């Protein structure tokens, strides 16, 4: 019987020990888990950067449109058509042979808007109350008894 007992303990020891394949599998599983966590954190950190990048792209597009509008306006201002338009509208100029006419309203047709007069009442100087009477009125909602 003594021979049977040592064999049982060795079998138990072997079943409790990890094999080389189990150790390799655990190491691969741990490395895979670390890589998955690292990948998910990179994805999570790239979301705000992506939103910022899209915002910057929209701003660039808007500024390019504004630039195109300003270039078109600059080209128009430098043309002869703009000079003639300004001379007739704001410069009050006419070409040779033309007569400049500026319409004026008849004297009785324009009415000025009346300015309301607000009467200002002169304020009478009030007597300054003492501090204790102000506190009395604050706490008791009535005038002091004396």
Structure report:
With 146 residues, this protein is mainly alpha-helical. The protein has four helices and no strands. 0% of the residues are buried.
Q: Which stretches of 5+ consecutive residues score pLDDT under 50?
A: none
Order of helices and strands: HHHH
Mean pLDDT: 83
In helices, the fraction of residues equals 55-70%
Q: What class do helices, strands and sheet pairing give?
A: mainly alpha
Amount of beta strand: under 5%
**Major sheet:** none
How far is it from the N-terminal to the C-terminal residue, by CA? 118 Å
Beta strands, count: 0
Count of DSSP-assigned helices: 4
Quaternary organisation: single chain
Write down the overall geometry.
flat
Radius of gyration: 47 Å
Draw up the topology in text.
Blueprint: H1 4-16, H2 20-77, H3 80-89, H4 131-140
Key traits:
mainly alpha; 146 residues; single chain
In short:
62% of the residues lie in helices and 0% in strands. It is mainly alpha-helical.
């Amino acid at each position: 019987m003594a021979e049977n007992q040592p064999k049982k303990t060795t079998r138990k020891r072997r079943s409790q020990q990890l094999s080389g394949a189990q150790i390799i599998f655990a190491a691969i599983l741990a490395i895979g888990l670390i890589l998955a966590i690292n990948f998910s954190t990179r994805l999570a950190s790239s979301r705000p950067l992506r939103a910022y990048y899209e915002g910057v792209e929209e701003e660039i597009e808007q500024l390019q449109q504004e630039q195109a509008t300003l270039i078109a306006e600059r080209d128009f201002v430098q043309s002869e058509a703009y000079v003639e338009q300004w001379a007739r509208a704001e410069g009050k100029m006419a070409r040779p042979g033309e007569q400049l006419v500026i319409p004026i309203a008849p004297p009785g047709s324009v009415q000025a808007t009346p300015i309301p007069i607000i009467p200002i009442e002169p304020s009478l100087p009030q007597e300054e109350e003492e501090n204790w009477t102000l506190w009395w009125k604050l706490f008791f909602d009535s005038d002091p008894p004396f």
